[in-house]
């Protein structure tokens, strides 16, 4: 199969949208990502996947820390900013937890120390041990078939 077929198939999996943040030399850095999963409850572990060409890869390798910020449906502009889809400069006013930047009003900000990492193809998988969490109410920003979307109605189980 070709790369486009693979990408199209992966796009059929609806995801939330996150911004991964870290701090290096006193400066906050972020990137938009949807490759994020919960791994373990005991210990509390999450996983992110960072491409080998992403600037964030070296930053997390250097700092050994990151935050996963799960965006609300009102934060599409932040996702676009950190994905490089908005070109004009914009000052982001972060909150800080455990000396790491978090996105204000994100649905959840999950602060982590790198527990382990694994190179897998053209990405590095970082497993983060959760050290703190900040949560807020709201509806999630979703991503499906390469487009932003909103969750229309939650289904009760």
- Average pLDDT for all residues: 93
Give me the number of helical elements: 3
- List low-confidence stretches: none
Q: Looking at the structure, what is the overall shape?
A: globular
Give the terminus-to-terminus CA distance. Answer: 37 Å
Which band does the percent of strand residues land in?
over 45%
Structural class: alpha+beta
Subunit organisation of the chains: single chain
| Strand runs, count | 12
Give the fraction of residues assigned to helices.
10-25%
How many independent structural domains? 1
CATH class, anyone?
Mainly Beta
* Radius of gyration over C-alpha positions, nearest whole angstrom: 15 Å
CATH topology: Pnp Oxidase, Chain A
What's the name of the CATH homologous superfamily?
Answer: Electron Transport, Fmn-binding Protein, Chain A
Protein name: Flavin reductase family protein
Keywords: Oxidoreductase
Would you kindly provide a written description of the structure presented here, covering whatever features stand out?
The structure is a single chain. This protein is an alpha+beta fold and 157 residues long. The chain has one domain: Electron Transport, Fmn-binding Protein, Chain A (Pnp Oxidase, Chain A). The protein is 15% helix and 47% strand. It contains three helices and twelve strands, in the order αβββββαβαββββββ. The protein has helices at residues 3-10, 55-63, 76-82; strands at residues 15-16, 18-24, 27-33, 36-40, 45-51, 65-70, 95-97, 100-102, 108-120, 123-135, 141-144, 147-150. The strands form three sheets. The chain has a seven-stranded antiparallel beta sheet. Strands 1-11-12 form a three-stranded antiparallel beta sheet, with no helix packed on it. The protein has a two-stranded antiparallel ribbon with strand order 7-8. Strand 11 (141-144) and strand 12 form a beta hairpin. The longest helix has 9 residues, at 55-63. The chain is globular and about 40 Å long. 27% of the residues are buried. The model has no long low-confidence stretch (mean pLDDT 93).
């Amino acid at each position: 199969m070709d790369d486009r077929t693979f990408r199209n198939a992966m796009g059929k999996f609806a995801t939330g949208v996150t911004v991964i943040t870290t701090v290096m030399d006193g400066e906050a850095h972020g990137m938009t990502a949807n490759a994020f999963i919960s791994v373990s409850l005991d210990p509390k572990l999450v996983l992110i996947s960072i491409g080998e060409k992403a600037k964030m890869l070296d930053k997390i390798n250097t700092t050994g820390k990151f935050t996963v910020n799960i965006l609300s449906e009102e934060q599409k502009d932040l996702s676009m900013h950190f994905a490089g889809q908005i070109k004009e400069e914009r000052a982001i006013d972060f909150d800080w937890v455990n000396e790491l930047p978090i996105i204000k009003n994100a649905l959840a900000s999950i602060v982590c120390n790198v527990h382990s990492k694994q190179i897998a193809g053209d990405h590095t998988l970082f497993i983060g041990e959760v050290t703190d969490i900040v949560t807020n109410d709201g509806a999630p920003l979703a991503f499906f078939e390469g487009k932003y979307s909103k969750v229309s109605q939650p289904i009760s189980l």
